[in-house]
Specification:
By secondary structure, the chain is α+β, with helices and mostly antiparallel strands. The protein has a four-stranded antiparallel β-sheet with strand order 1-2-6-3, with helices on both faces. It has a two-stranded antiparallel ribbon with strand order 4-5. Strands 7-8 form a two-stranded antiparallel sheet. It is globular.
Length: 219
Amino acid sequence: MTAATLKNIGAAAAKYQLAVLGVALPGRNDPVPKGTQSVVLLGPKEPGFWPYFKQQPEYQNRLPNPVDRWSKRTVPMLAAKTGGTAIYPFGGPPYAPFISWAQQSAAIWASPVGLLVHATAGLFVSFRGAIALPYAVPDPQQPAQPCATCGPKPCLSACPANALTGTGYDLAACHSYLDTAPGRDCLDNGCAARRSCPVSQTYGRNPEQSAHHMKAFHP
């Protein structure tokens, strides 16, 4: 099979409302097929992912884990078009190191609060899967790190529970706050720190999508 370019992969992914978010070189012990030379990271393409996803059978049949089930159906179809293998950020062990792969890419960094931040998706960056390719795919993206020019850095003070700051993540405080009446805002609209990011605010993520993931995080 002829090697696909990143542009080709992005065009194919867009048909499923997915976007190429980065490219990484796997480590020697990473759980990928032997001979893998590139890992292409895929995530929701906004705006539009959630309305598209709601039309899919995995959402409409109301069975558990609809987004993961959709990913298990969709990412292999993209992988087949490129001669690659589908990899997922769930379903382990072994678990694929999506965070370290992301930080290798040219468009994703660690934010001031420790969460990943993407040049386009901001703190709403997330992954539905990846394609492990037996050939190298250059990553032409060289965007500027958005946090470097973000003067106010609102993510550092946006969490109403003070659970997510520059010193770390207090998971217990986060869950405790979500059990309160004011916590409904985060449950219904998504993490306040993620929403505060100026780049996140331009990405067009549907609040209903954030609410779905918050429900999974805090049943």
